[in-house]
Design a protein that fits this description.
137 residues; 55% helix; two-stranded antiparallel sheet; globular; alpha+beta
């Protein structure tokens, strides 16, 4: 039952009921859940639109091993954001959480993602979101 689309509908409604001040875009949620169901591997190799320079290095690709992350990583990310006064209501819908998760999966610091093109940033964020949504199935 929880592997069906009904799980996502129920989850979306529960999130809305519990967090009346949080807006979850139905279209974005639907796109994210469909992407999560399609993508299988927890390892993602991102190819940059144009080479990305950071920390004196040039990256044409960057590998993300989401499977190596643990509950300790998730708690550390939540604590880091809390110290900055940023609450994480739904991790899979929080860009701040997802990018820090991607940073841990890649070995780059979260600040590197702020310097990326918005296209690369969005593709990486979407892969992190898909991984989280898949892990909740």
């Amino acid at each position: 039952m929880f592997r069906s689309g009904n799980y996502f509908i129920l989850r979306r409604e529960l999130i809305k009921m519990a967090n009346k001040d949080v807006h979850i875009d139905d279209k974005e949620f639907t796109i994210a859940e469909k992407a999560a169901q399609k993508e299988g591997s927890p390892v993602y190799t991102h190819t940059f639109i144009k080479p990305f320079e950071w920390g004196g290095k040039t990256y044409e690709t960057l590998e993300f091993d989401f499977a190596k992350l643990t509950g300790k990583d998730a708690l550390a990310i939540e604590n880091e954001l809390a110290l900055q006064g940023k609450a994480v209501v739904v991790a899979s819908m929080s860009s701040e959480f997802l990018i820090r998760m991607a940073a841990r999966a890649s070995g780059l610091g979260a600040d590197a993602f702020e310097a990326m093109s918005i296209s690369d940033f969005n593709r990486i964020r979407s892969r992190a979101r898909s991984f989280l949504l898949r892990s909740e199935l």
